[in-house]
Amino acid sequence: MARVNxxxxxxxxxxxxxxxxxxxxxxxxxxxxxxxxxxxxxxACKTTWTSGRGQEYxxxxxxxxxxxGSYPLGWDVQLLEKLGPQTWEGNVYTGRTIxxxxxxxxxxxxxxxxxxxxxxxxxxxxxxxxxxxxxEALKLPQQMWMFYLxxxxxxxTYPACLAACPRSSIYKRPEDGIVVLDQSRCRGYQECVNACxxxxxxxxxxxxxxxxxxxxxxxxEQGIQPQCFVNCIGKIRLQGWINTPDKAQxxxxxxxxxxxRKMALPLYPQFGLEPNVYYVPPINVPDRFLIQMFGPxxxxxxxxxxxxxxxxxxxxxxxxxxxxxxxIPYFKIAGxxxxxxxxxxxxxxxxxxxxxxxxRPAVDRLYQIMRSNTT
Amino acid sequence: xxxxIYKQSQVKPATCNLLLYSPIAILxxxxxxxxxxxSIINTQQVVASRITQELPREDPSSPLWNQAMEHPARLLxxxxxxxxxxxxxxxxxxxxxxxxxxxxxxxxQWEDKSQSIIPEPxxxxxxxxxxxxxxPGADVPDAAMGEKGKxxxxxxWKSIWQDDLERxxxxxxxxxxxxxxxxxxxxxxxxxxxxxxxxxxxxxxxARAAGNPITVRPANSPVQVLMAEGFGNxxxxxVQEGAGRGLxxxxxxxxxxxxxxxxxxxxxxxxxxRKSYIAFAVWDGAAGHTGSRxxxxxxxxxxxxxx
Lengths: 375, 307
Known about the structure:
The complex is a heterodimer of chains A (375) and B (307). By secondary structure, chain A is an alpha+beta fold. Chain A contains ten helices and 19 strands. Chain A has a four-stranded mixed β-sheet. A three-stranded antiparallel β-sheet of chain A has the order 15-16-17. A two-stranded antiparallel sheet of chain A has the order 1-2. The termini of chain A are far apart. Chain B has 307 residues and is α+β, with helices and mostly antiparallel strands. Chain B is 15% helix and 26% strand. The interface between A and B is large, with 42 and 46 residues.
């Protein structure tokens, strides 16, 4: 085991390989508050990559309802229980990562996944935290809560799948940090399937090998965001590049939300993988739950999001989500416009920060009808 | 130990008299010899008896196996490299061997209560392998997959590969149909395009499209020939000549694995009448044994009998 720096847990940690960061790292921000679980992302991915024999239950992208939904079954709660107390002192994680909790003879703490774990993709879907008593639905703030968690491979800086593979069949692409599984080399040991704490590597019984999200790298190579991003009708996703905090750039949209504003947070940072999909946490969920899922900065992130409507830069940046299929390496705000910039900081496109508002009379005099507000 | 083997043995030794007249063989047989319908146990080495009949390369239940001595090979946990096996699996494999001067075939027999063939999440495929040093001589490589510069050659039988062949021969469905017989699927995109069906089907099976050796194996053989120089770098050997067949019955696997005595360039050669070495490994699929999570032996002396 080597010692590596993991900025998400505020300290060094043990990892199977030494630290080696790619030239640039795939990064993404998902705004949970906008997700409606329409599963368009799931279908976009499925039809593109996993429509084959043996891939029936393989969902590189899925959206699950928290707190009760999970795919594969119990992927997070099983590991949280095995990992033991997950304590923080400020922004420093004082518990054990899955690498530090590795039992004797293992490279890391795993979750053994069996076929039954993949048999119920819809379990817990659209269920809320508790039962709604008579009249309770009318109370504000809501007493009962739930939220949708859209998930893809996190293309982690310290991937558990990569560490677990005895054949080194998994690697991080040096040019973009995307984690890929070499299909010509895999022998189907399933170590990666059990190692990924997010349950995002799948075994294909038809071919006998394991498969995972490739972040649509053929698109990324052309400067285009992945399928699950560009097909998101809620425009909750933005793909770009993430730097370490010491190299954060204010005009990099992912850096800005993650490092500068600290509004977008990693999923279960305590696992120790330095995952690179960042979530704007839901605003309607108790702090305790959010801290467990997104770390100690979650309450502050929620507050910042609540205040975002007063902030032109944030408003503009969120307006860029889902506004172009191009990857957005940089951005700027100019007047009432948010502008997406390419690698050379040249303008790719612009969107108005505030949509124009048109107020029309309730009665259409021309056609002599009443207008109804249906949008 | 010998008593346990004695109870399990059901074969009658035809070579009994021959062995009694051979002083060397008598020295080697330390456990016991029985001429009353019990097996001959040789705890010191694996001896491949030479026969003139056709080798039972794919027949684990051939009566010819009665002519072979049995070596009880004790298996150890693979506890050298992570991920290790921490809970014991199959601890004993009973080995017999026959040769005809060109090929040598080994019969491995072990207890496995649960037959596990098709790998799925959480379960592997029952498997067995025989391993040889790449180069002859007493300076053997590490028995755990060899080492850098001192490689090993492996003949690897996997029950799923045999099952694939048998299902194809019997016109039965693929692994998915066998694994989930009640499953229904609404649509595969390649079914809608007959002209491009094969190409599309391949595209949605990336391991096949990438030419992964576990999906592209020698036709009609459930045995893959591999080479390795330590853990983590096993790869297909330059010569893919191997045969074998397994039978699972009453909680036992009986599996033959055959190899040429001189497979050709890049491979190890066994010499008749001269001591070499062999090692064994067994995977219990139901226990999730795959890859380095296996039971394995150290090097065991191997002798191919002469005339």
